[in-house]
Structure formats: C-alpha cells, structure tokens
Amino acid sequence: MTKTKIKDILNYEFLSGLEISKDGSKLVYKKTKANYDENKYETDLWVYDTKENKNYPITDIKNITTYTFDEDANVIYKSKSGAKKDIFKTYNGYGIGKKAFDLDLDVKEIKWIKDELFLVHASEKKNDKAKEKNKYFEKLDTLPFWFNGQGYIEKDSSAYYFYDADNEKLTKIVDSEFPNEIQYLALNDDLSKALYIKSNYDKNKVAQSRESLVLFDIETKTKKVLIDNIFSYYTAEFLGDRIIFVATDMKKGGINEDSFIFTCDFEGNYEKITDSNFDMSFGNSLGTDARFGSSKTFLKANDKLYFIVTEKETTKLYSIDKKGIVNLEIDDQVEDFAINNDDIYYLSMGKESLSELKKKDDDRILVKNKIKSNVGKIETFEFESNGDTLTGFVVLPPKFNKNKKYPTLLSIHGGPKTEFGDIVHHEHQVFASNDYIVIYTNPHGASGNGVKFSDIRGKYGDIDYSDLMRFLDIAIKKYPQIDTENLGVYGGSYGGFMTNWIIGHTDRFKAACSQRSISNWTSFYGVSDIGYYFGSDQTASNPWDSLDKMWEQSPIKYADNANTPTLFIHSDEDYRCPLEQGLQMYTKLKLNGVDTKMYVFHGENHELSRSGKPHGRIKRLKEIKKWFDGHLK
C-alpha cells in the first residue's frame, strides 16, 4: 500500500443521507466524489437492495440534493433546478428515472407522506429582473444579516407545502417572515396538525437565542404557541397523543449547554423525562475532513425517538420512549441511520474506512469503503488535567521507527464544543505518511463529556490552554521519538483561536498555522454571523460594560509577544470567523518582524478544510505541509 497523499481525497467516496423504503426492501443514499478538473463535487444516488443484497447506482446527473421513497419503494428525486421550475423524477427499479412532476419553487427538501402526497420545504423562485435589480447592493434589516455558507440572508425566506401529485395541487401550510425562521416541521399521523420550531425576533428584527414551539391546526389554519421563549430546541415530534422534544434552557452552560428530553401535551404543559444524570451531547460532533454531506440526528420510529449522541470520543445511537426509558441501540461510530420495524441500518466510519453501510446485529459490512493508502497507527492514553480524565491521541507514521526522532504537530479541533476521535482524518494521515507524529486531545470545552466539562465561558485561553500544554508535556514523556526542537501547532476556528493564543504565550513551537480563526473578541462581536450572542456568551463579557474582560481573552492582545513563524489561512466568504480576524494577527506579526505569510481563499467560507472546492482544499493542505516542512525539517 502507498502512503497517504494530499490528492487522495479526490478519490474518496463520501456516503451520506441514508433513507429506507416503507417495506424495508431498499435503502437509498448519496455518494459524493470530487471532480478536480471542474473544481466541484458530484453527487448521485445509490440503492442497496436488502432482499437481493445488491448495491447499484440509480442516477448519473451528478447534482442530487433531495429525495424520498414513495409508497411503492420508488425513489423520487430532484433532477434539475431550472430558472422556472424544479423537476422531479421517479426511479422504479429499471431503466432511467422518468419525470414525475415539476414545481414552480426552489425546493430544499421533499418527503413522501402517503399515497401521492408530499411535504415540500421550499422558497419562491427569484426571477432574473429581481436579481438584476438588487445586484449592486444588499439591504441589512435583520440580525444576523449574513450566515456562513448562505451569504446575505435578508431576502431568503421559505415555507412548507403539501403537494398532491395526483391533482397537481400545491397547498402552503406554514410561511415564514424572516430568514431561517422555521427550523423544523413535523406532522401527526392523521395530518390534522403540524408542529414546528420557530426562531424569535424582537421588535428590532434581532434573532433571539430562545425559540418557540408552535402547534398548527392544518384544517382550521390556526396557530397556537405551546412554549414561548424558554428553550433552544434541537427537534420536536408527535409521539402518540403527546409531543416529545429535545431542548435546553441554557441556564447551566450557556448556548453550548447539552439538552434534555421533554414531553408536552397540546396545551403546552411540559415535563422533563430524562433525569439530571442524562448529560449527553446530541448529534455527531466528531471532527474529520473525510466526511461530506448532511446526515440526520433524530428519527421518530416504532413509537420512539431515536437519536445520535457524541459520548466521549464515539458517536452512538440511542432511543427513548414517551415514558422516558432510554436504550443504547448501537455502540459504534454512527454517522447516519435508517429504521424499518426492527431493522436498523447505519453508516459508520472507522480508523481505516470512510462511511460504510452496516446493519445492526449483522457482522457483515454491506457496502465497504476502506481507504486504499497505508494508515498510520492511532494510539491513545489517558491523563489527568484540571480535575478530569482526558484522552490523548497519537498518530504515528506508518513505518514508525522507535529509535528515530520525528517532527511533531499538535492539532487542535474547532468548536470548542466538538472533538477529535480515532476515525479517519485525512490531513492527519497525510502528515503521518510524511514522517510527522501528530498529537491531539479534547480539552475542556469539548463535547461528549457533559455540561460541566464543556462550559468554559470566561475561561478561554485559561483552562483549555493548560490542558493542551499538559497533554503535550505528557506526550513527550511517553513518546521519546517526539522531537522537542521541531514542534508545530495548528488548528481551525476555535483551533485557530488557540493557535493564536499559544503563539502569544509560549515560544516552544517552532512553527504554527492558524486557520479561520478568532483573534479579537471585541470586533468578532459585531461582524460574525453568531458574534452578537456567541461572543458575549462564551467570554461572559461584552464590549460596553466589560470590555477589559473581553480584551483579556483576545489573542490579539498578546500578539506583541509572538515570535513563532506563523502561516494564516482564511476565506473571504467566511462569515463565522470573518477575514478581518486573521488579518489582525497577520498584520501584527508582520509589524513584529516575525516570519509570516497569509493565504486568502476567494469564494470559500468557514468550511474550506471540510467541504471547500477541490482546488482550494488541495492548495490549502499543500501550503500547510510546505510551511511545516520548511520550518520543522
């Protein structure tokens, strides 16, 4: 086997979006690959036949966005988004898909309900005249005014519809006034009621951190706010004669607080059905650059709510019924899942594989997806820091020689409420294959360890910094092969923040790379899409009545101390950690006379390293490797 190369990521096949037919006979999923020549990704649908154990593609249009099964196990998918209409085709198991219907909407998601009835989430088509009229300016009237990956959002609102394909009838259920206002919509069994999560805006059109749970009577077209401005929600579903929802009041841990599970009646009387020891981080927050495409966290099936949580360094599947009985369903790295009666199918990542299709209680891998390069071994150890037990990870070169010294990179994840584990991480393997040792851990602030562990409000650069330095010291003792004269540090987002912080507080690293970072909380507050609430929540301060505290936690304050050669990487459409954050650090290091360089990627956003265009991803990783090679080798 060959070593992992930067361009190997162009050959990876990313599986996502797993769905199952009503009769359980077929699974459908997206397969995405990079097209380097055209600098884009191409996504088509594949079907796994559970009866015949066959796996085959059903589309070849390379641009699939939304799809669903109908009652007869046919796949209905969006095949084209035109200037006037979105066209949907149906695949019934032979030949190529035939046109099923078209909609004069920009469809984001479609879901089969019953017979020929579909639930459609869409926005209205924008005509060319409207686009031409507004191309010279943007009107800012709400907060947030832009969003990472979406751009300016003032003009982007959507609605939910029923579409009766038999009669070609489109009926609007729920409309929205503001962008991203309706977060999720569920229907009860007889389709008489809808339930949705609604973002709250104040009188000045500022989005609030707490949302409303709304019950909508489809027959009478009346709305009832069940719970208003108390919780921030993950999801809500009808479960029997009650509603089950996952939410947090953010009183113990701020906006990053883990949620609990509640039920309520149709009058809004609610009760928590998970006890205080239930302290789980919902969703898959395990970081990797070897994943592409969205996947589900929650699914209602079998009179239960199934959900993925990140627990320690693993993503697991659980279920809960309306009585509050919680069961562990799958103890594996679960990326996505689909359920039909007692059968649970899921996508799972491993140490040497991208997402593969598996079935619960079956030892077989139904669709294999092992990477073809020689993977460096990932070793772990536990250590104590700031009163908790943390796990340290060490990625060794594939041809590791215990009698040799290796330049070593400390990799820091984003978030901070995400985490690293032992699943495939492409860039870690690239460095390991090029004779680096890569080390990483999940400091305080990370997910998977409960609210108390993840709550570092007002402690940025304090408890997390000491965790990372302690981890580095212990790793050096355990692995004498680490060359302490050639240490590098790098990370993105929160990892970029910590890289900026580290170079202002120690000279022990010979080189650094800060990506899509935060450097100055006081300016981040007013320019990031989440800055106006995230910045003040996480620093426990704001620029008006506690400026000193916010400034104390800003890496730019300490940049005058920085002597470490540092590469900065940022994207000009990153609205999460905007470009000016990286520019401030770059400018200060330049003025300090420090060896520094910066790359600004045009047309890319905060997701450059994970879902950026192929050219950008390859260039980014080449320059990071070139930087560390030049300073550590």
| Order of strands in the sheet with most strands | 31-32-34-33-35-36-37-38
Going by CATH, what is the homologous superfamily of the domain at 378-632? Alpha/Beta hydrolase fold, catalytic domain
CATH topology of the domain at 378-632: Rossmann fold
What is the CA–CA distance across the termini?
25 Å
Low-confidence stretches: none
Instruction: Quickly name the level 1 CATH class of the domain at 378-632.
Output: Alpha Beta
Query: What is the average of the pLDDT values?
Result: 95
Largest sheet: 8 strands, mixed
CATH architecture of the domain at 378-632: 3-Layer(aba) Sandwich
Radius of gyration: 25 Å
State which percent range the strand residues make up.
35-45%
User: Please, how many helices?
Assistant: 11
> Structural class of the helix and strand makeup?
alpha+beta
Shape: globular
Number of strands: 38
Range of helix content: 10-25%
List the topology elements:
Elements: E1 14-20, E2 26-35, E3 40-49, E4 54-57, E5 67-69, E6 75-81, E7 86-91, E8 98-103, E9 106-114, E10 117-123, H1 128-133, E11 146-147, E12 151-152, E13 159-164, E14 169-175, E15 182-187, E16 193-201, E17 207-217, E18 222-239, E19 242-248, E20 260-264, E21 270-272, E22 281-282, E23 298-301, E24 304-311, E25 314-320, E26 326-330, E27 334-340, E28 343-348, E29 356-359, E30 365-367, E31 378-385, E32 388-395, E33 406-412, H2 426-433, E34 437-441, H3 451-454, H4 463-478, E35 482-492, H5 494-503, E36 511-515, H6 521-527, H7 531-539, H8 547-552, E37 566-571, H9 579-592, E38 596-601, H10 608-611, H11 614-632
Parallel strand pairs: 33-34, 33-35, 35-36, 36-37, 37-38
Antiparallel strand pairs: 1-2, 2-3, 3-4, 5-6, 6-7, 7-8, 9-10, 10-13, 11-12, 13-14, 15-16, 16-17, 17-18, 18-19, 19-20, 20-21, 22-24, 23-24, 24-25, 25-26, 27-28, 28-29, 29-30, 31-32, 32-34
Helix pairs in contact: 6-7
